[in-house]
Amino acid sequence: MKVCALLEKRHSRGKQFSIVVVAEGAESRLDKSLQKKRNSILSGHVRLGGVGEILADEVEKRTKFETRVTS
After folding, report:
1. How buried is 23 (Cβ within 10 angstroms: 0-12 exposed, 13-18 middle, 19+ buried)?
2. What are phi and psi of 6, to 5 degrees?
3. How far apart are CA 57 and CA 51, in angstroms?
4. 33 φψ region: left (φ > 0), alpha (ψ -120 to 50), beta (else)
5. Which of the listed residues 10, 40, 46, 59 has the most CB atoms within 10 Å of its CB?
6. Phi, psi dihedral angles at 35 (to 5 degrees)
7. Residue range 5-22, pLDDT digits in tens
8. Would you say the pTM of this structure is higher than 0.85?
9. DSSP 21
10. How do strand 46-49 and strand 36-39 relate by DSSP bridges?
């Protein structure tokens, strides 16, 4: 995964943290089921979400770096 390679390269150069921004609604070429649909209580509209959590889990599994997700 290119993201993991870039994070490992930054870490090897002494960077202690990185920020990765993901568009919620992004699709994977391999798995289109990355999104979870959530109803917004305030507006009643459907909002996409879940990609950040999936990416963070995969990055942590592959690199052993601590990851955090915010939205």
Report:
1. exposed
2. -65, -40
3. 10
4. alpha
5. 59
6. -95, 145
7. 999 999 999 999 999 998
8. no
9. -
10. antiparallel
The H-assigned helical ranges of 1-71 are 2-12, 51-63
pLDDT in tens, 22-63: 886 666 666 655 555 555 566 666 666 678 888 899 999 999
Can you tell me which residue has the tokens 């089921």?
33
Give phi and psi for 39, each to the nearest 5. -85, 130
Cα 71 to Cα 14, 26, 31, distances in angstroms: 27, 14, 22
pLDDT at 67: 95
Query: How far apart, in whole angstroms, are the C-alpha atoms of residue 55 and residue 50?
Result: 9
Element (DSSP H or E) covering residue 38: strand 36-39
